[in-house]
């Protein structure tokens, strides 16, 4: 057998915070969903989530994972709103709005809007009550498909799966002939470990094996 020398972390005997740090340092780069929701009274909420991916193409489902607040175990406002209103939008985060999006992660009291706090602008969506973000070039309107919850203590995640019912693209980020979204025009950013973010400009091509 070939020698395999690694440091190991047994998650059963390690604090969840240490495991969380190592996981978020190695599951990189993570795309960032800027999730807009409303509460039952129509108050808007906006927050970034990098535990985010596409989970099904047919039907078109995406998912993100809000965690229980570390110290208190309370639900994040986004989860509370999605549970009640069952709709949300996801906007793509690019270099232009990264700093304002980061400001949306401030722990504001429930009902206070991160739109005002960050300076980002809400725009009415077509099919859902949650707003779109005017400054983002791409937005997805989603209806809630399901929520799976993995505990109720600090750090416990809930997987929020949404059906993408309508997609919006700024023509400025698309190839006008084929309609493809061009990464060099989109300039999306991602999250890495700690407070580290990344750009998506360093790309390379590999053809799929036939
Ligand atoms: C780039 C970025 C990515 C984040 N990703 C997540 C995530 O995937 N899950 C999570 O629970 N919190 C994540 N956070 C923290 C939340 O955005 C933060 O707790 C926010 O205040 C939640 O807002 P809400 O209570 O209005 O829902 C992230 C923060 C930043 C800046």
Classified in CATH, the superfamily is: Electron Transport, Fmn-binding Protein, Chain A
Span between termini: 32 Å
Number of helices: 5
What would the CATH topology be? Pnp Oxidase, Chain A
Q: What's the CATH architecture name?
A: Roll
Could you spell the SSE succession in H and E letters? HEEEEEHEHHEEEEHEE
Mean pLDDT: 97
Shape: globular
Taking strands numbered 1, 2, ... along the chain, how are they ordered across the largest sheet? 3-2-6-9-10-5-4
Bound molecules: flavin mononucleotide
Estimated radius of gyration: 18 Å
Given as residue ranges, the uncertain stretches (5+ residues, pLDDT < 50) are none
**Would you count the extended β strands for me?**
12
Describe what you observe in this structure.
By secondary structure, the protein is of the alpha+beta class. It has one domain: Pnp Oxidase, Chain A (Roll). Helices cover 17% and strands 31% of the residues. The protein has five helices and twelve strands. The protein has a seven-stranded antiparallel beta sheet, covered by helices on one side. Strand 9 and strand 10 form a beta hairpin. The longest helix has 11 residues, at 16-26. It is globular, with a radius of gyration of 18 Å. It starts with 15 loop residues before the first helix and ends in an 11-residue tail after the last strand. Residues 32, 45, 47-51, 65-67, 76-78, 102, 105, 107, 191 line the site of flavin mononucleotide.
């Amino acid at each position: 057998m070939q020698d395999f020398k690694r440091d190991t972390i047994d998650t059963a005997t390690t604090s969840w915070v240490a495991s969380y740090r190592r996981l978020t340092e190695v599951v990189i780069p993570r795309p960032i969903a800027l999730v807009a929701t409303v509460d039952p009274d129509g108050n808007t909420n906006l927050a970034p989530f990098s535990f985010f991916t596409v989970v099904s193409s047919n039907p078109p489902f995406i998912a993100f994972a809000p965690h229980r607040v570390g110290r208190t175990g309370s639900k994040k406002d986004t989860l509370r709103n999605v549970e009640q209103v069952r709709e949300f939008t996801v906007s793509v985060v690019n270099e232009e709005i990264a700093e304002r999006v980061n400001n949306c992660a401030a722990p504001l009291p429930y009902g206070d809007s991160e739109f005002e706090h960050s300076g980002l602008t809400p725009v009415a969506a077509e099919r859902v009550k949650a707003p779109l973000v005017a400054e983002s070039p791409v937005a997805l309107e989603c209806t809630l498909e399901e929520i799976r919850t993995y505990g109720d203590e600090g750090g416990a995640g809930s997987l929020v799966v949404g059906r993408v019912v309508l997609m919006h693209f700024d023509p400025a980020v698309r190839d006008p002939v084929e309609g493809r979204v061009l990464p060099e025009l989109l300039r999306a950013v991602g999250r890495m470990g700690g407070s580290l973010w990344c750009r998506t400009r360093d790309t390379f091509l590999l053809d799929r094996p036939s």
